Amino acid sequence: MVFNAVIRSGRPATDVGNVRLSQCFILLAFLCIAAAPLGAQSPSAEDHLLSADELRRTRMVPRTYFYGKEFRYKIETESRTERGGATFFSGHLNTAANGVRTLAIGKPSPHRSYIPVRLMHYQENPGEPHIDDDPLLTYFEGTNGRISHSFVRKLLYNFEGRKRVTSFGNESVGYGLPAFQLDPLACLLVNDLCAIIGCEPPDDIEFVAMGDKLQTEWIEHKADRKAIRMSTTDPDDPRYAVFTSGPEYLPLEQPRPPHGPLQIDISELMVFDGFRYPKKATYQSLTPDGTFGYICSIEMLDIREIDVHNFEWIPPWPAGTEWMRERDRKRTHVPYSDAQLASIQQHALANARANAPQPKSSWFFYLNLGLIGLIIAMAVYRFWPRSEPV
């Protein structure tokens, strides 16, 4: 067909042969290109050992692969405080320190300055009288990029009815998520907080190459068989850090200066959608003397994609919440239902009776009891009939 068409067009036979030869070369080139991935693939990021400066530059690029995902994980917290201070977790040990969390992170949008975030904390229901939810929502933070809500539940299971007990909420303009910045998973994933909260990074920071002062090497780590260890070339300087291979370059080990314990310690990774995430990790935020701060351990339970456009970034206030709008300091109360209020009142009365001090018998009572016994004994002795002598 090709040949006949060329002849009709008036081209000479030699041109026809050249056309066919060109077509063969094109087809051969196409087949070679298609087969190239089957033969020799280009080296992947995890097969290339970055220099220390390359690794430092790569880690400065904000990670984005966790956008549009929700993470569910178990958290356990040990809080340490010193005189005159308290960490976030020490102030909320009953409602935000231990349990199961979900952390949802949205995606950038041209219509908002912040990326939406939602942090929900659940714990085992200790016996709340008005709600049967188990696990029980005890803390949340959420922002849709314009306003932020935070909620702390006041537990009622040990409430005795001697004072007013109300869960507390707060509404602020823009970004106001204190627990998000302290969350251990967020600290491990987010290497540039400005990418989440919309702040402008400083433009006067200049990258200073370390050259031969730092070195990198492959090591076999418990979480990654091909991890990268970056350390100083000074034999008297013990500082080092361990990272996964690419493309994530997550921190696996990071000691607190000058020597440990490990501020970051990831012992196991999990894969979702082609990227690795911490599966089991410990994160420490302590002063050098270890007397102030907290230690958190996490275990990832699940990761899922979310529809960021239809996601509920700000949950409704639970019943019994008094929340304040920071803009004008206006307070709004979300009442309990009649049934919930009756359950709370009955439970409070029962707790008050159970914890009420029992009357103690005084020494005066025992003295009177002894005197009465003595009088009775003397009366019996006096009027008891005696037998006459023979």
Short summary of the structure?
The chain is built from 10 helices and 15 strands.
Task: List the defining traits of the structure above.
390 residues; alpha+beta; 15-stranded mixed sheet; 10 helices; 27% helix
Compile the SSE list and pairings:
Elements: H1 2-8, H2 13-39, H3 52-60, E1 69-80, H4 88-91, H5 93-96, E2 99-105, E3 117-123, E4 136-143, E5 147-152, E6 167-173, H6 178-182, H7 184-189, H8 194-197, E7 214-219, E8 227-232, E9 240-243, E10 251-255, E11 262-272, E12 275-286, E13 293-305, E14 321-325, E15 330-334, H9 338-355, H10 363-383
Parallel strand pairs: 6-14
Antiparallel strand pairs: 1-2, 1-13, 2-3, 3-4, 4-5, 5-6, 7-8, 8-9, 9-10, 10-11, 11-12, 12-13, 14-15
Transmembrane segments: 363-384
Keywords: Membrane, Transmembrane, Transmembrane helix
Report on the architecture of this protein:
This protein is α+β, with helices and mostly antiparallel strands. The protein has one domain (52-339). The protein contains ten helices and 15 strands. The chain has helices spanning 2-8, 13-39, 52-60, 88-91, 93-96, 178-182, 184-189, 194-197, 338-355, 363-383, and strands spanning 69-80, 99-105, 117-123, 136-143, 147-152, 167-173, 214-219, 227-232, 240-243, 251-255, 262-272, 275-286, 293-305, 321-325, 330-334. The radius of gyration is 36 Å and the shape is elongated. The chain starts with a helix and ends in a 7-residue tail after the last helix.
